[in-house]
Amino acid sequence: MIINYFFPQFMHKDTGGKILLSLLALVTIMVIIFNFLIPLLLPEASSWHMPTYMVTLLGKYLCLALLAIALDLVWGYCGILSLGHAAFFALGGYAMGMYLMRQIGDRGVYGDPVLPDFMVFLNWSELPWYWYGFESFAFTALMILLVPGLLAYVFGWMTFRSRVTGVYLSIMTQALTYALMLAFFRNEMGLGGNNGLTDFKDILGFSLQSDSTRIVIFSLSAAALAMGYIASRFIVESKLGKTVVAIRDAELRTRFIGYKVENFKLWIFVFSAMLAGVAGALYVPQVGIINPGEFSPLNSIELAIWVAIGGRGTLFGAVIGALIVNYAKTYFTGALPELWLFALGTLFIVSTLYLPKGVVGLFERFQNRTENNKLEEKTA
Amino acid sequence: MNSFSQMQDKVRDVLRRDRTFNHTIVEENIFLQGTHSVHHNTLDASHGPVLYLEDVSVSFDGFQALNKLSLYIDDGELRCIIGPNGAGKTTMMDVITGKTRPDTGLVYFGQTMDLTQMAEHDIAIAGIGRKFQKPTIFPEHSVWENLELAMKTDKGVWHTLFTVLTSEQKDRIEEVMLIIGLQELCYARADLLSHGQKQWLEIGMLLMQDPRVLLVDEPVAGMTHQEMDRTAELLTSLAGKHSVVVVEHDMDFVRSIASQVTVLHEGSVLAEGTMDEVQNNQKVIEVYLGE
Ligand SMILES: Nc1ncnc2c1ncn2[C@@H]1O[C@H](COP(=O)(O)OP(=O)(O)OP(=O)(O)O)[C@@H](O)[C@H]1O
Ligand SMILES: [Mg+2]
């Protein structure tokens, strides 16, 4: 197929991934053309373009899809049901939020050149040490990867080494995100307490309110999703990916052929946490706020539901699940807000009862049936 | 600097001559080729036995599964272990491979490697391979991938991420596939194999590991007679280069392969000798008839 020409070798058999990335590229190019180039070149023809709020909404979905991929890596492939993955997402988001706060400079309500508004409000006289460096974007980018990665490393090192698995591990991840939520709610944390970080103005000197900045951030989210997908596909197609699946299916056997299981779990967990951090960092400038609610244990559970509905262990299934559920969520919370949790619950129950492999499994079943029909026609 | 390294060399030479301190020398270990494993011991089977179990006891909630078990396996030996259900045969393998830690007793691989102090994966890398009683393979992987995963190579995380099969490695996988007779099912998912084929696949994975000692727990359960004969042939052909320890209930099979048989009963050795000696042993007859 010609299309393989555009994809690396390890993606050639990944039909779902190729379709997904092609669609993603198409949408991004369309948005760039209609929302950016045409208004720039022909200002009077700008009536065709997609409203910017929709572009930003889509960008938000893409970040959540990246988060879903991160969970699918550890859950679908390694069998670690992390119910605390939203914590890594939120940490990445907070890192970005801190940078955006520093970008406000003296344009805050209190006009302090260094201190964010909430610190002035709390009568703090100087910036806490952990805020140092966040005026630099490069430093922030590093922290977006390092902070979630380090937390995942410490948590994983302790739990995997003591061979905590299954439900116990899931409960511990819930406890982790819950503890972080409580900590971030406290004003003494110096991260905005329950209001979190908000009222952002600029990113890298560009106004966050301007259409073109929003389109650039959307495009970056699409690129991050594509690169995250490709990197994850590379991992799961590598021998490491096979080892990780082997650990999921027969951990003891994997140990007895000489793999240090803890190290593999730790590696994939840390990688996944970093991916979640990147997703969170791109999410925050698009929604304009990050607060401790993002650490809510419910968020992590909802995330697991997206992956389950999409179909785990496929990567693109996670993306589909994240898009479907979040679209439904936007629709329901607009139209029938009180019904959303019921709708989510129903969706989850239906998918676990009738679609154990999620939406992706449905496609596969359909595909197999048509193939079987063809076979029958041939043999008849 | 120079004189220091000279002195170091001299000390090393002295240590090498005086084999008592062998374990202090960090040497390139033939069993750790290409790996950067944590322990620096070299397998030293120069005194005959490659595996030592001495006075090993294991109890589960008061139940004595192994009771002062002592067992020595020689380098290159093929040893069969028989015994009634619950005699502690599988538990013995668990102790050797690090799955179960003994309450008391010594477990040594060669002269120097204390297996009770090593992690499971280190024991595997050091050269002890194991086939489980219930065939344990990777169900979602193909036959080929199962063998690939078991292959003796650097099993560190980063190496595993970027490694690509070399042509020698592919040849080796194909060779083993031929030995276990699954070449036609190369790309079949392992959970679709029959019970006997799964047994073969697990034996194949053991071969891929190329271990010094093979612990094989009930290899012929679920096999046809022809398959059994092939297994017997394979295991006997492995002896010599490898030490093979086979646990089996099928007496005909044991008779067809074993030179030395050890009878385990209630967690300790009841009798040891050739098959004929063992079968005529009064204590053994009592245990088996008393069942
Ligand atoms: N993890 C465990 N916890 C409790 N008891 C155990 C455990 N493992 C083994 N046992 C007990 O120890 C005894 C020895 O078991 P083992 O599996 O070693 O026997 P075996 O000789 O392999 O028997 P078989 O021929 O049936 O495989 C059995 O009575 C078994 O119930
Ligand atoms: Mg047994």
Report the bound ligands by name, code or SMILES.
adenosine-5'-triphosphate, magnesium ion
Computed CA radius of gyration of chain B, to the nearest angstrom: 21 Å
| Number of alpha- plus pi-helical segments of chain A | 14
Main beta sheet of chain A: 2 strands, antiparallel
Give the largest interface pair and sizes.
A-B, 23 and 30 residues
The sequence of SSEs of chain A as H and E is HHHHHHEEEHHHHEHHHH
N- to C-terminal distance of chain A: 30 Å
Residues in helices of chain B, as a percent range: 25-40%
**In CATH terms, what is the architecture of chain B?**
3-Layer(aba) Sandwich
Number of strands of chain A: 4
Commentary on this structure:
The complex is a heterodimer of chains A (380) and B (291). Chain A is an all-alpha fold and 380 residues long. Chain A has helices at residues 15-41, 52-77, 85-104, 117-121, 137-161, 166-185, 211-237, 239-249, 251-256, 261-287, 297-310, 316-335, 340-354, 358-379; strands at residues 197-198, 202-203, 206-207, 289-290. Chain A has 14 helices and four strands. In chain A, α2 packs across α11 and α11 (297-310) crosses α12 (316-335). The model of chain B is unreliable at 17-40 (pLDDT under 50). With 291 residues, chain B is an alpha/beta fold. The relative contact order of chain B is 0.16. In chain B, α4 (143-150) crosses α6 (167-179), α4 runs parallel beside α7 (195-209) and α6 crosses α7 (195-209). Chain B has helices spanning 2-17, 89-97, 120-126, 143-150, 157-162, 167-179, 195-209, 225-238, 251-257, 275-279, 282-289, and strands at 49-60, 63-74, 78-82, 104-109, 113-114, 128-131, 213-217, 243-247, 260-265, 268-273. The chains are: A mainly alpha (380), B alpha/beta (291). The structure holds adenosine-5'-triphosphate (ATP) and magnesium ion. The site of magnesium ion has 4 residues of chain B, from α2.
